[in-house]
Amino acid sequence: MAERVAVIDYGAGNLRSVAKAVEAASEGAVTVLVANSAQTVATADRIVLPGVGAFGQCAAALRAVPDMQETLSRRVLENGVPFLGVCVGMQLLARRGSEHGSHQGLGWIPGEVVRLQPEDPMLKVPHMGWNPVMLRLDGTKHPVTGQLESSGQAYFVHSYHFQPADSAHLLATSDYGGAFAAIVGRDNILGVQFHPEKSQAFGLGFLRAFLGWKP
User: Fold this and answer.
1) What does 103-129 look like in DSSP terms, one character per residue?
2) What's the pLDDT at 34?
3) Please, which residues bridge with residue 83 across strands?
4) pLDDT, tens digit, for every residue of 144-172?
5) Are 56 and 100 in contact (CB under 8 A)?
6) Per the residue annotation, which of 103, 127, 169, 195 is the catalytic one?
7) Which of 200, 144, 197 is nearest to 23 (CA)?
8) Is 197 a residue of the active site?
9) Among 87, 112, 127, 169, which one carries the catalytic annotation?
10) Which residue is catalytic, options 103, 127, 142, 197?
11) Which domains does the chain have, with CATH numbers?
């Protein structure tokens, strides 16, 4: 029986393109479910949380779905289901986000989300475009990110970035007037600041590695 991959629909992401990218990466080997209920997430074998917009709005929208946060915590933290957060979905892994005030995240990876402040004043925020993803030592050893080409190009659109409290959770960085987290992870949890669904071969390769991961 094919694995069921839940792409969470909470009104805060380009989930259709993410779902199509997961389908393409799996070459039909998984069943992708666009999940707008906790019941669907409760039976999924893998979970993807996309996100576009402001941290606080996305956090509130996720919590507004009945039983969604509780079901996510149970499936991911207790049952060990592989989890991937994309863009703001990755930022929500933090304990706190500082976009338009202070907002509570899921707190699954200690750290906070803060505004990009490039050292070069000519660099505009938001950061939009292609950048190399540089694997750190912990990233080269991870079963998913270790399959990627270090300095492979990914597509980013963001004004804020994740600062993990523990450097061991920082698997890869990119640079925009200073280094920022491109991939974070711990245990069965991964998060990417870039958009794999827009990152062509590099993004599909990452999703393929995630779908084959058995943490």
Assistant:
1) EE---SS-EEEEE---SSTTS-SSEEE
2) 93
3) 47, 189
4) 999 998 889 999 999 999 999 999 999 99
5) yes
6) 195
7) 197
8) yes
9) 87
10) 197
11) 3-211 (3.40.50.880)
Task: Give the separation between CA 151 and CA 133, rounded to whole angstroms.
Answer: 5
pLDDT (tens digit per residue) in 89-130: 999 999 999 988 899 999 999 999 999 999 998 999 999 999
Q: Which residues contact 46 (CB under 8 A, 6 or more apart)?
A: 3, 4, 5, 6, 30, 81, 82, 83, 84, 210, 211
CA distance 152 to 31: 28
DSSP H/E element including 49: strand 46-49
Residue type, 31: T
The amino acid that residue 116 corresponds to is L
State the Cα torsion 171-165-191-44 to the nearest 10°.
Answer: 120
